[in-house]
Amino acid sequence: MAATYEILALRYAILDGGRLQYQNYLTPDDHAAPDPLDYLLFAIRGNGRTIVMDTGFDAASAARRGRELLRTPAQALLDAGIDPAETKDVILTHMHWDHAGGMNYFPKATFHLQAAEMSFCTGPCMCEPHMRRPFDGDHVKDAVGALYSDRMRLYDGTVEIAPGITVHLIGGHSGGIQSIRVPTARGTVVLAGDAAHMWGNIRNKNPFPLVIDIPRMLKGYDIINSLADGPDHVIPGHDPLILKRFPALNGNPEIVRLDLPPIA
Ligand SMILES: [Zn+2]
Ligand SMILES: [Zn+2]
């Protein structure tokens, strides 16, 4: 029988006060309606492996960017019984500050990133301060450091990271953002990451405003939908509904099981 995995979504931070719908949708229904974001890590475990998706950010980044850190990403993982200091594999969906800001939590990990993302965040577009805004130079240095200490794998498109678990180059939101496809007992789930921030972005094909290529982001929504077994098998990157729609792990409301059917 083919391998299946448990998938966890772990919330470590929120952006509530003042976040409005026009900041999450290029064409909002109600420009000024409140539309908060959650900051999540995802973890995939089973068949003797634990793979973490993204690294979150630390207290310094939270203070600098005005986000509310509920717990460190490392603590969120520890709460689920995952020790980041011993984690061997971390998939970086992309290099934005809220995804690549915690590489130091994973001193033994190999990082898995698309070559196009590494090129983008170290390339000529970064000469423009506007394009650099979602990145932090220290995180990019961490990635280069990992590359030069043989702890970085760079991919061109679809690659199998573990039996049945594949990464897929999507683009649109950043130069080489990737999504992850995971077989579970309820079917094939796609962890979209920031290739689809909210269910509303992908279900209504209404792009997120932080975008470098709108047609590619829209094409990416199609690719993600085609890789998943249904709309509830697509998991967006920042949607506060995730914690409400899936069952909690061991009664902890900040960690939910995405490999189980939705409860709402
Ligand atoms: Zn992003
Ligand atoms: Zn993000």
Characterize this entry briefly.
This protein has 264 residues and is α/β, with parallel strands linked by helices.
Characterization of this structure:
It is a single chain. This protein has 264 residues and is an alpha/beta fold. The protein has a single domain, classed as Ribonuclease Z/Hydroxyacylglutathione hydrolase-like (Metallo-beta-lactamase, Chain A, 4-Layer Sandwich). It is built from nine helices and 14 strands. Strands 1, 2, 3, 4, 5, 6, 7, 13 and 14 form a nine-stranded mixed beta sheet that branches. The longest helix has 14 residues, at 214-227. The model has no long low-confidence stretch (mean pLDDT 96). It binds zinc ion (2 copies).
CATH superfamily: Ribonuclease Z/Hydroxyacylglutathione hydrolase-like
What characteristic shape results from the CA principal axes? globular
Q: From the coordinates shown, what is the CATH architecture?
A: 4-Layer Sandwich
CATH class call:
Alpha Beta
Helix run count: 9
Write the layout of secondary structure elements.
Blueprint: E1 6-15, E2 37-46, E3 49-53, H1 59-65, E4 68-69, H2 73-79, E5 89-91, H3 97-100, E6 110-114, H4 115-121, H5 129-132, H6 137-148, E7 152-155, E8 159-162, E9 165-169, E10 178-184, E11 187-193, H7 199-203, H8 214-227, E12 234-236, H9 241-245, E13 248-249, E14 252-257
Parallel strand pairs: 3-5, 5-6, 6-7, 11-12
Antiparallel strand pairs: 1-2, 1-4, 1-14, 2-3, 8-9, 9-10, 10-11, 13-14
This protein binds zinc ion (2 copies).
